[in-house]
Amino acid sequence: MIDWRRVNELKDEIGEEDFGEVAEIFLEEVDEVIARLRSSPDPALYEQDMHFLKGSALNLGFRGLSEICGQNETDAANGQGHQIQLEPVFTTYEQSKLEFMTKC
């Protein structure tokens, strides 16, 4: 679910000291999008939301979330946004976040 190699690469790139700040910003921004998707999902925004989530997830090593969001982004781009199931996004994010927070 988490690509720990990527997490360690990021720590090496930006330094252990700044890593916590970067991770905090990532989690805050993703939390905002997840909260909006939970409270007022809009299929017209799924392609852009999934692209943002996919990229954010890749940057911090949330591999499973990135894969789900990438597929959803493709589906939304192909006009299938109304068929996207958001629950797997929410579940994978929460599980990934818990694992990340526990081990970092």
Automatic annotation (TrEMBL):
The keyword Calcium does not apply. InterPro entries: HPT_dom_sf, Sig_transdc_His_kin_Hpt_dom. Pfam families: Hpt (PF01627). GO terms for molecular function: protein kinase activity. One of its GO terms (biological process) is phosphorelay signal transduction system. Residues 21-80 form the HPt domain. It comes from the Bacteria. Keywords: Two-component regulatory system. This is HPt domain-containing protein. It comes from Aliiroseovarius pelagivivens.
